[in-house]
TrEMBL record:
Its EC number is 3.5.3.12. It comes from the Bacteria. GO terms for biological process: putrescine biosynthetic process. The gene is aguA. The active site is at C357. GO terms for molecular function: agmatine deiminase activity; protein-arginine deiminase activity. Pfam families: PAD_porph (PF04371). Keywords: Hydrolase. This is Putative agmatine deiminase. Belongs to the agmatine deiminase family. It catalyses: agmatine + H2O = N-carbamoylputrescine + NH4(+).
Amino acid sequence: MRIIKDTTPLEDGYRMPGEFEPHQGCIMIFPERPDSWQYGAYAARKAFVKVAEAISFSEPVTVCASAAQYDNARAALPAHIRVVEMSSNDSWARDYAPTFVKNKEGQIRGIDWGFNAWGGLYDGLYFPWDKDNQMARKLCDLFEKDVYDKRDFILEGGSIHVDGEGTCIVTAPCLLSKGRNPQMSREEIEETLRQYLGVSVVIWLPCGIYNDETNEHVDNICAFVRPGEVVLAWTQDKEDVQYEMSNACLAALEQARDARGRSLKVHKLLLPAPVTVTKEECEGLDSCDGEPTRMPGERLAASYVNFYIANKNIVMPGFGDPMDKLAKETLQELFPHRQVIQIYARDILIGGGNIHCITQQIPANI
Ligand code: KQY
């Protein structure tokens, strides 16, 4: 594996493909961390296994597990899913597995962004994060991909969505947060995204999902379903704090033009009723640096937008909410050539993210 420091993907003719483009596989990480996953992570593991199985109908899945969890992961996952021992601090493959880019010949390279647990010592979510930060490079080695060293720029995979045709969507509270790249201006951040993702237009949303502890990652509020079309997390409840937030995002999307000069078609994906964490769930979580990880009644950032687009299916969360059915139908209409599989994901949500956050696609080399 070559570590590339002197050129950028744009200079070398690489771009980040849309998630809806063909994949050669998907990466996940087995859950273990006791202040993220309640009661020994047993329920979370079951949900992760269901997600891995659903994706494996479409594409090969590799699950990384610590030495301590290797036997459990191997026993819990079917034989056709590869398990490799790799240490990490937690299980968010979207955020610290490599972002992969591709050139016209179908060659794939990885990007190793800096990772500091969503805000480092300023407002990060745990310490240390050193093992997470090593994963992109280790995974590029494992998958035999050359890797761009961009550790001097803090970015998580869940904070970007691209259409593969030159457009990237981000949220301002995340990309401009003080815990990530406070020394950089918005223009400098945009230029970095241009150079590394091979995009020409960056669309800035003013916010994400209420109480999303990632500083409001885009992958919980808005996602491309194909070039020119996005889904946006939506509520009709004017009393909900999310109402203004989703409306502000709609206004930004309606104003925007993508890299090809198109206006975006926005499909609204209604949210479930607010999901809050219970006292019993909180009691199953270890404290984080001596502080309670979650407080009973805390609202979790539940959103159906946090789905994964696999080659032949869509793997989306359900919350045991009456809206689950409508959300599934909406995504099925938007992806008529993929089968939508809905997985009960409360046990992933309690960790602070959802199905998109625990997966990272590797583009196909075609
Ligand atoms: O990408 C994500 N949504 C990850 C959030 C991690 C939270 C750690 N508890």
